Amino acid sequence: MRIYLITFLFIVFITFTTKAQQTLSGKVTAAKTQQPLIGATISVPGTSTGTTTDSRGAFTLTLPSTTDTIVVSILGYQTKYINPDTLVNNSLISLDTDFRALQEVVITGYATNRPLQQTAASVGLLTPRELERYNTTSLVPALNTLPGVRMEERATASYRLSIRGSSLRAPFGVRNVKMYLNDVPLVEANGTLPLNLLDAGTIGKIEVLKGPAGSVYGAGTGGTVRLETIRPRAGESALEIGSMVGSYGLKRYTATATTASETSGFLVRYAKQELDGYRQQSAMDRDAVLLTGQFYPSDKQTFTFHTYFSDLYYQLPGALTREQYESNPRAARQVNIDQKASLKLQGINIGLAHQYQFNEHWRNNTSLFGVFSFLNNPFTTDYERNANQAFGGRTQTTYSTLVAERLLRFTVGGEFQHSFVNSRHYQNRVGEPGKLNFDDEVAADQGFVFAQAEADLPGNFILTLGSSLNFLQYDLTRVSSADTTSNYRNRRSFNPQFSPRLGLLKVISPQLSAHGSISAGFSPPTDAEIRPSDGSFNTQLQAERGLNYEVGLRGNALKQKLVFDLVGFWFKLNETIVSRTNAAGIVVFDNAGATRQQGIEAALSYAFIQDSRKPISFLKVWSTYAYSHFRFREYRQNDSDYSGNKLTGTPPHVWLAGLDLESKPGFYLNATTNYTNKIPLNDANSVYADSYFLLGARGGIRRSLGLKWQTEIYGGIDNALDKTYSLGNDLNGFGSRYFQAAPGRNYYVGLQIKYLIRK
């Protein structure tokens, strides 16, 4: 009898112990869309036990013995209380929308995975709905809807991107802004960003983090842009083709194949785009191939990869004087035609990322990347041929826990990149390389380590505190001078820079939050600025350093029909890098003292109708506005004092407004207006580009034909009022050549056909 009693007690003990160590795993999704909810909290009331969902909406949680209820919650959705005994592992938990709270897309920047209303920063967001409002030949119109963001196209496929006036003064692509493609750094080895290699149709989501984001992304006083490529939908296999034709010889073709299951997904897309160009000497031709995929070998692991190849050619028409521009804006500069000025760029970007959820507390994200490109650039003054390569990686580890039922999260990590450029400059002999002027090899090592803490505080406050330590070194070797001088090697190192960030957010109500932040950042000069085309080594050029103060208010009202976001900032930048043109017409660079950049950014929208059951299922009007009071604080150039002048290249006022309409039968219409104030084109503020008002629209119909076929027919008009304006300007242009005319009124029509193999 005693043996039976002991056995019985042993069985009871084992049962109790098993229950005490119960581990629950599952996935949290939105009930309406079945999309995963990232950052949802799963907690046990009255204890410190809890976790958050990862990028797949998945979680794993070890429960204490007395647990009879778990709480699943996330802002914008109704909280659910569940008895864990009713769940099994890999359970699907669906949350209904809470119409009293702000419906938000989760922001993955700043490593927080929080809804926008809980993000203590100014963030611009473009989802597929916003990106598909425009002609998919370019990201320019979509990015320009974000207040404080300005993208310019100086020539066909030659882009510049500015966040709060950060980089319009740089003539080479994007500067002072960090950019990531699927969490992999997107950068050329010479320090500039090849936006022109990207096909706009392959981008599915864009997050723009405005202002210094050094606590997570290192160097960059302007901000950070996070791009995500389109991805296959879970459980769907499909084939899709598209075709578009338009004004000025536009031809565009796409072909896409996708397949996806619960454990993997693959997408391959080919895009071909040709354009004769609005101006003389402005044709372009681009082929782009994207291969991307995801693997989910277990509930704890996610592998993602992408390979992006682009072959781009475009001609350079050159800037015009005001007289030439007003006489014939479609003309090109004659020397550009004579010298066959153009750019041919072939590049491949490869990225591999791995996420591992060790348990409910620990998670690691690690990515590796490689960039390889070849450049041929006959220009008016020389012929440049480059071979570029870069490789590196990024890793971050996050620890999350609950303290007194409040979330506490710590993140540490680092990013490193090594790059090498072999740059050869020749005389340009009518589009062919002539005599070698110089042959350079440039190696660069750069990186940073970072740490960030985030805590939910009493009173519905959220505190973020982070910092990074950044380093950069250039090794410059003029190979062509090795046999004539011993001083053919140069090294430029920048002292490690500390960039802190402090953010505080107050959730005033489910419909309203306020935030403030103080952040510091720095931007070192690029290879193109240290080694300009005149053949010199500008090793005295200093890194820019900035400090940003920011406050904001965002929320909604009238049952979420009215949504608003208001931000004010004050940014002080020291050692500002500006460009000037020397007597030979070659662009060189100087540190120009300091600037003071103050501004207000606002976004407002009102949804009159948002009901899929009605004939007009969606009707919304929206508007964005940016006021930029940007001035040189201290700026002397030779005998001229430009202190107090307006910052070159930045319009004081930019206002956009739009209307979006969708109907139950599938018809849709998107209309947009854009007013941009006059822009100072030189540091002396003696020359301005005229203000302009643009009107554009896109409309079409999307229909399903049976269960397998989906079609879309669309058409659009840009610059409907046929305004003459200069979108890409040559700042401080040599010979008073400032103006790069944008296309006049132009049209396009297109067709998309999709066949569902499996759904």
Automatic annotation (TrEMBL):
Entry's family note: Belongs to the TonB-dependent receptor family.
Primary localization class, coarse: membrane
Entry keywords, A to Z: Carboxypeptidase, Cell outer membrane, Hydrolase, Ion transport, Iron, Iron transport, Membrane, Protease, TonB box, Transmembrane, Transmembrane beta strand, Transport
Keyword presence, Transport: yes
Name under which the protein is recorded: Carboxypeptidase-like regulatory domain-containing protein
Source lineage: Bacteria, Pseudomonadati, Bacteroidota, Cytophagia, Cytophagales
Topology versus the membrane: Multi-pass membrane protein
UniProt GO BP: iron ion transport
GO cellular component labels: cell outer membrane
GO molecular function, one term: carboxypeptidase activity
Domain TonB-dependent receptor-like beta-barrel: 292-719
Organism expressing this protein natively: Adhaeribacter radiodurans
Subcellular location: Cell outer membrane
InterPro entries: Beta-barrel_TonB, Beta-barrel_TonB_sf, CarboxyPept-like_regulatory, Plug_dom, Plug_dom_sf, TonB-dep_rcpt-like
UniProt keyword rRNA-binding, yes or no: no
Every TonB-dependent receptor plug domain range: 116-224
Origin superkingdom: Bacteria
